[in-house]
Amino acid sequence: MGRQKKFVLIGAIVTIFLSAGCSSHPQKVVDRDGNSYSTAQIGSMLWTGNNLDVTHYRNGDPIPEVKDAKEWANLTTGAWCYNLNNLDNGKTYGKLYNWYAVNDPRGLAMEGWHVGTDAEWSAVSELLGGTGDAGGALKAEKLWKEPAQEKKNKSGFDALPAGARRDSDGNFMPSGQYSRLWSSTESSAKTAWCRSLGYFDSALRRGMANKKTGFSVRCVKN
């Protein structure tokens, strides 16, 4: 083999090797409804880079949209809503789901994916600097009210302040200030583990919330 051909072959091998190990072109994932999501690599985990926006379980069954506050507060089955029942909020922030939708055996996440567990959220926190700093690394660069002085979006996760829907009366926590995200891990008969981010600091807080609460959802590749 001539010297020039050897250089060409070596160059091709190096290109293939670098391409296989490089994450500069993030994957896209599509849900049951055809919505496309960016992805964020955090350690060995591949997370969706947008809040879930699907209206069907993985098997094709519809997830009900529930607008009425009293009806929402009395649910013990899966449901979704837009913050303030406003479609424009949905276009920006995705949907809010109660935990019954997260835990439904028909599957809320896309094929080959699952809703992030409490252990996976804890791993994210450790990888991004600990409880006090991980929130700043997860937040998007936009839409947060009076953001704390922090280095944002180092992870590509793009957490947005989607707000939440309360379990007690079905009313809403407005967008712009907080992000509340479910884990798939139950903490008691009435509660499940979740994560919280606020506009005022860089923390990623772990807590328990009533399963009737409406939070955003992120998924992790199996």
Structure write-up:
The chain has one domain. It has six helices and 13 strands. It is globular, with a radius of gyration of 20 Å. The relative contact order is 0.18. The strands form six sheets. It has a three-stranded antiparallel beta sheet, with helices on one face. Strands 1-2 form a two-stranded antiparallel sheet. The chain has a two-stranded antiparallel sheet with strand order 3-4. By secondary structure, it is of the alpha+beta class. A hairpin with a 6-residue loop joins strand 11 and strand 12. Helices cover 23% and strands 22% of the residues.
In short:
This protein is of the alpha+beta class. It has helices spanning 3-21, 69-73, 87-93, 99-102, 118-127, 134-138; strands at residues 29-30, 36-37, 39-42, 45-48, 80-81, 96-97, 113-115, 164-165, 172-173, 178-186, 191-198, 205-210, 219-221.
List keywords for this structure.
222 residues; alpha+beta; two-stranded antiparallel ribbon; 6 helices; globular
